[in-house]
């Protein structure tokens, strides 16, 4: 389930298709073409932003619910971790590593259970975040949906995003804000209110980013893994990094490591290349 392209597939009947005689079927109308063009411009015309490692304010949205209490991640040494415990483990790796890269990085913690709840305000002390995360206990997921509108209401109260000015685009902002959603449920589909005024505002901010790591059950046929993944995609404004992993301890660590990249210094996810160069 790789992150899908922003533009619709060319198999979309609103764009082009071929009939039995081999002729192309044109767009339905000029309006359809204009909409497609506007989508391309909006999603792929990257703004001219300073490529600087300015401090980040990172909001960690930690999901504390699980679907299957018998599910485990197994490490190479034979030790096992339950899903929520593994999310806490990779969170610890991320926070300490990010803090080592830039000690001015600040972290905040939001708990995801029946609804989002702001737990810890911004701090540049990793122990504050990790001790609070360790204190929070997991619980079995019983809901079929979770409404993210409450999350946007919380963000509106707790964060301030630096303004982007076209005239001052070469000047770095004082900081950027990033929200990282560590989601671990496979049967609870997030409800992302696309008409929420503050969410609409956030999606237009060049110094605000949302990244997603979905850790789902292995048997996707028995769960709603694809529905959950598709729903979380609605958080993406075109610049997000979105990863999904099942019960694979190595891959979940790889994914969280990829999220260490600074939003102002990384390419679009579809253009990333983590392979090593050839040796001569």
TrEMBL record:
Keyword annotations: Cytoplasm, DNA damage, DNA repair, Nucleus
Subcellular location as annotated: Nucleus
One GO BP annotation of this record: double-strand break repair
Region annotated Disordered, chain positions: 1-25
Main location per the UniProt record: nucleus
One GO cellular component term: BRISC complex
Ranges of Polar residues composition bias in the record: 9-22
Entry superkingdom: Eukaryota
InterPro entries: BABAM1 (IPR026126)
UniProt signal peptide: none
Protein name, as recorded: BRISC and BRCA1-A complex member 1-like
Gene designation: LOC106115807
């Amino acid at each position: 389930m790789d992150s899908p392209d922003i533009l619709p597939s060319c198999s979309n009947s609103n764009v082009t298709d071929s009939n039995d005689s081999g002729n192309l079927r044109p767009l339905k109308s000029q309006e359809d073409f204009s909409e497609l063009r506007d989508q391309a411009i909006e999603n792929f015309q990257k703004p001219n932003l300073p490529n600087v490692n300015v401090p980040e304010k990172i909001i960690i949205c930690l999901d504390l619910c699980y679907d299957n209490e018998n599910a485990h991640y197994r490490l190479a040494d034979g030790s096992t971790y339950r899903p929520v415990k593994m999310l806490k483990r990779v969170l610890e790796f991320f926070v300490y590593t990010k803090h080592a890269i830039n000690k001015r990085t600040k972290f905040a913690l939001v708990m995801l259970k029946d609804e989002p709840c702001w737990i810890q305000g911004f701090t540049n002390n990793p122990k504050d975040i990790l001790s609070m995360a360790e204190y929070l206990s997991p619980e079995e997921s019983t809901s079929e949906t979770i409404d993210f509108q409450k999350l946007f209401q919380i963000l509106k109260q707790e964060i301030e995003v630096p303004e982007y000015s076209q005239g001052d685009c070469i000047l770095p902002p004082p900081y950027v804000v990033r929200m990282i959603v560590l989601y671990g449920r496979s049967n609870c589909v997030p409800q992302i209110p696309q008409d929420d005024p503050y969410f609409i505002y956030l999606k237009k901010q060049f110094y605000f980013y949302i990244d997603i790591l979905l850790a789902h059950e292995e048997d996707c046929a028995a769960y709603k893994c694809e529905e959950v993944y598709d729903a979380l995609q609605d958080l993406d404004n075109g610049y997000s990094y979105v990863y999904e992993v099942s019960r694979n301890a190595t891959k979940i660590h790889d994914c969280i490591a990829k999220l260490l990249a600074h939003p102002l210094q990384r390419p679009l996810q579809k253009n990333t290349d983590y392979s090593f160069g050839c040796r001569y």
